[in-house]
Amino acid sequence: MNSTQNGQSEARFRSSMRRGAFAAAAMTAALATTGCAMPSEASSDEGVASVTGAISGANWRPWGDLFTRSYALDTEPGTCGKGLTFSMAVRNPNKNYEISTAFNHLGSTWNTFGSQQFWSAPSCAFTNPSQSDPVLAFYLAGKGTDNHIFVTLATSGDIHYDSQNVPYISPPTQTYQGAPVPWSQLGSNTYVGGTNGFPALASNGSRIVLTTHDGNTIYAFNRTLPYSAMSPWSARVAAPSLPFTAGEGTPAITFVGGSTQAFLVLVKNNAGGLWWILNNGTNFTGVWHPVNLMGHAVNSDPTMEWGDSDGLLTIYYTDTTGKVIQTSAPTPSTLGSQVFDYIPCATGCGFFGSPRALPASIEHGTRSVVIRGFDPDTPANMHNNNVLYSEDFQ
């Protein structure tokens, strides 16, 4: 990937994230008239703490361009964030992972992490998702072309200022505390065929958990944090037997705070349903539970995030209409008890694959979500190269 391609991607990344800077008074009109164009920024976070149920579709920005690559994207982006900082990873045509970092409105160039090749989309999680934690380190994982899972530890780009005091973001590096961190194989297990071995990562600041499936069994690995060479990844731990046939795809995982205080694993079955189970960081606990989807059958991998600011767990997926739908609840057991609502998009939008939650604020929201796709403003020859985003602005 040459510097011109880097620069073009960086410019699109930056300009797309600046499109929300309109007057707050114009928000209603923008939503009504611009479709997928970015509406105005909310002027405050007033009311966020009072939210106890689903987030209305009217409280989501219509989909808009986040970034465009110089090549077609054939897997989902990997997303991880904390506060105003987030990293995005994609798989390039050589099957390597490329990663960029953004801070609020500024995006870095893209950096290729080694020569390791992958079948799966990347998965990413900051070692500590808390905004108050200053460490910008994250784990990245994927299923390699030799059918093993590989992981690395990386450092996110950070904000700097040039000689003219103009801010810029350095690209992320495959290092931790200045030392290179090569890709390492996770366990000796091989995952042959389909989406077997496609990983998902989540952290709570003291432990990171990686979950995947092999056939009809869900597994998890874990590691204590902060990073220490003396605390390696655990052996593979199996979840209780699934009471259904798993659908092809990648499980979702997040750490749920509030009264739950556990990792939540969400799995799609082959009948369009979702089931969940808890993991305490080292072992699965309890049994599998179905989510009442209110008739909105799942047509993609699910994704989810926990919001500390409002105490809500939000899940996203595309249903059989091809649209991205979301619902929120304060606990896993109350998922499905609130309204399901679509994230708005104007005529002319289109989506590919599955959404990915991005637990960071891109403009001014408390939660964000991305998906491969296009809006009416995306050039036709870039439809397969593009990633859209939306965020709530309540």
Could you explain how this protein is built, in words?
6% of the residues lie in helices and 37% in strands. The chain is mostly beta strands and 394 residues long. A hairpin with a 2-residue loop joins strand 16 and strand 17.
End-to-end Cα distance, whole Å, is 39 Å
- Specify Rg, calculated over alpha carbons: 20 Å
Shape: globular
The helix tally amounts to: 2
Q: Roughly how much helix do the residues carry, as a percent range? A: under 10%
The major beta sheet can be summarized as:
5 strands, antiparallel
Write a compact overview of the structure shown.
The protein is mostly beta strands.
Structural descriptors:
394 residues; mainly beta; five-stranded antiparallel beta sheet; four-stranded antiparallel beta sheet; 2 helices
Question: Which helices and strands appear, and what pairs or packs with what?
Answer:
Elements: H1 3-17, H2 27-33, E1 64-68, E2 78-82, E3 85-91, E4 97-103, E5 106-107, E6 111-112, E7 123-126, E8 137-143, E9 149-155, E10 159-161, E11 167-169, E12 175-176, E13 179-180, E14 184-185, E15 200-203, E16 207-214, E17 217-224, E18 237-238, E19 252-256, E20 262-268, E21 274-279, E22 284-290, E23 303-307, E24 312-318, E25 324-329, E26 341-342, E27 350-358, E28 368-374, E29 386-391
Antiparallel strand pairs: 1-29, 2-3, 3-4, 4-5, 4-6, 7-8, 8-9, 9-14, 10-11, 12-13, 15-16, 16-17, 17-18, 19-20, 20-21, 21-22, 23-24, 24-25, 25-26, 27-28, 28-29
